[in-house]
Each structure stands twice: as C-alpha cells, then as structure tokens.
Amino acid sequence: MSDFTALPDLAVRTLGGSVTAASDESFEEKENLINPWAPAFRPETFGPKGQEYDGWETRRRREPGHDWALVRLGLPGVVRGVVIDTAWFKGNYPPHASVEACAVDGHPGDPSGAEWVEIVPKSPLQGDTVHAFPVDAERLVTHVRLNMFPDGGIARIRVHGEVVPDPAHLTGLTVDLAALENGARVVECSNMFYSSPDNMLFPGLARNQAEGWETARRREPGNDWAVVRLAAPGTIRLAEVDTTNLKFNAPAEVSLTTPDGTTLLPRTRLQPDARHRFRIETPEVSHVRVNIHPDGGLARLRLWGSLTPAAERSLAGRWEALRPGA
Hints:
Layout: E1 18-22, E2 46-47, E3 50-51, E4 56-57, E5 67-85, E6 96-102, E7 117-124, E8 130-134, E9 141-149, E10 153-154, E11 156-163, E12 175-176, E13 185-189, E14 213-214, E15 224-242, E16 253-257, E17 263-269, E18 275-279, E19 285-293, E20 297-298, E21 300-307, H1 309-322
Antiparallel strand pairs: 1-5, 2-3, 4-10, 5-8, 5-9, 5-11, 6-7, 6-9, 12-21, 13-15, 14-20, 15-18, 15-19, 15-21, 16-17, 16-19
C-alpha cells in the first residue's frame, strides 16, 4: 500500500463524508462506500435482492453508459491518493473505474455545474482486491465522483489527503487548534500499537476505545508521547484531555510541552473515563507534545485558542491558491 494511506481519509463518514447521489443502487446502498470499518461478509445471507454485501452494488446494466456515485468529502483538502476496494466482490466487480474531483464554495456545497477534473484515470480492477492510486493534483477538492465501468460492486472508496481548512471558519474566532478538521495532524508518536494517535484529533466524542489513541503496555522507563502539529501557529487558552471509555488503561498523568521542552501544562493527574479541562496561557506555538505517564490511551485532545495574524494570512493565502481558477 502506498504511503498516502497514512494521511486522513477525507471521505470517511466519521469525518463528515456523505454519498449524496448515485446512478443506481439496486442491490446495495451507496452509503456503504464510506463506512469507517473494513468491509465484512457473511456467505449465504440472502435478502430479497440476493446475496448481501457490505458495499455499493448496482444492477446489471443492459444499456450503454456506466454507473457512478457522488461523494461529498467531510473535509476539504488536497487529495494525495485514492483507494478503491472491491473486497468480497468476486464475480460481480466492475472491470474498470475512474475518479473525478471538483471544488465548490460553502459546506455543504452544491456541485451541480462544477468543473470536474479526472484525478484517477480509467483503470483496471480486480475482484476482492484493494487498489491504491496515487494522485498528483495540487488543487482543492470538496467532492469526488467514483465511476465504474460498466456496473457491479465496490466495497469502499478512501480519499486520502491533506486537510485544507476554509479560513472563513477560523479567522477571528476561538478554535480548536488540535482538530483534524482544522488541519492539525500528529507528526510523531512513541507508540501506536492499538490505534492511531490521529484518532485523538477526530470530531465528536469517541464511542469506544478503538476510536481513540492507545499504546502498548510500557515495560521500560519513560513515558509515551505524541507530537501534534497544530492547524496553524497560535496561542492556547484551554486544553481538554479526554479519557472517555478508557476505564482501566487511562494514563496516570498527562503533561503538555513544546517539542523543545517548554512546559505548557505540568504533569497533572488524570481520572479514567472522564473529560478534563485545564485553563492554560501559552506563548505562540506551532507544535504541542502530549505526554502520557507512563502509557495508556486518550480518547480526544482539544487545544482551544486563537491563530496569530500571520497564521490567518497564511491559511487564507493557501485556500485561495488552491481553489479552481487560481
């Protein structure tokens, strides 16, 4: 699998993605394309429409043309790669697929009348296979259109890329500088044995332990940690450290520092299965290291503050440079 799969899936439902339209979904619903879990399958589970699949499946096409599904990304961004997964579709997968992209203003925006650009050319597919397609298109994307030729079933589409936040939602406001939806990312981590540290930055509340970050049990001296590159440089006024669902594996303590060791929040006791809020006053920072002592997991990390004037100008400039026609 290509390295781009380490980037966030901008289309996944847990980040706000939606499949808004499809040419056909006679056998299986289009919404399955962006489910966050791996495709599942139970043989000989026949419903009124035939064998049930965890994916999108169209009827057998008897006329010219091809089937398509329209996906509104949960987060706008620059796409670095697309995964088309035909898991469990063995005699009914499409032999070819392509992907187009566009960008429209507003959220949710209306892509009717938008200019579509092909980011994955018409490419051959195999049954029951994960296909990874790198994308080289330095442009803003808010919607993608998955085309399959001529018909059949696709389990998942993953649209991996870099989040590009709309500056209109950040400028002049108090915002979560550690939110993935605002452009933050975990760039270094001591351990992610059970789950990715980027999970801490997802929107909403974690529903279970798997939706947070959890490390292996530490058997050596020291502590686990993750470095968060903030959405943009700013000052932090409130830190929220959430151990929801972590009842017997929450860290004993947490601290926040800059990567060079400046203390933002000293070592502080944590409770299991609880949201903690700490008022802090920081200098301008671009990265924050969250230290958990000695190990364990965090469901969510929120760092509320404001962008610097220079950061606001930088975000606005990038947004404009990546828009179509720039």
